[in-house]
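S.,

Sequence below, as promised.
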Amino acid sequence: MLQDVSVRSWMIESGRALIECILCAAERNIAEFRSAFSRMIDFVNEPNNWPKIEEELKTRGVSSKRRGCTVFFKAVVLPNHFNVNQV
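The prediction came back faster than expected:
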């Protein structure tokens, strides 16, 4: 399901909108958030960054031992790097 581009796009936009709503409710300016969110999505969509992201997650304790976190991360953030059938 998460390998579907339309599903990933919906999740990205829903997450962005949710955080924007929270920021607006807190009377914060969302312009900076929008820019940072866009840069983050660009970064995680670049295949050359995936090894760096995975290494950083390992240093934070997200490893194959914690499969739920790893599976969600790989399925949502690194969709082209992950085969759901390998879970």
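Helices lie at 5-25, 31-44, 50-59, 67-76.

Coffee later?
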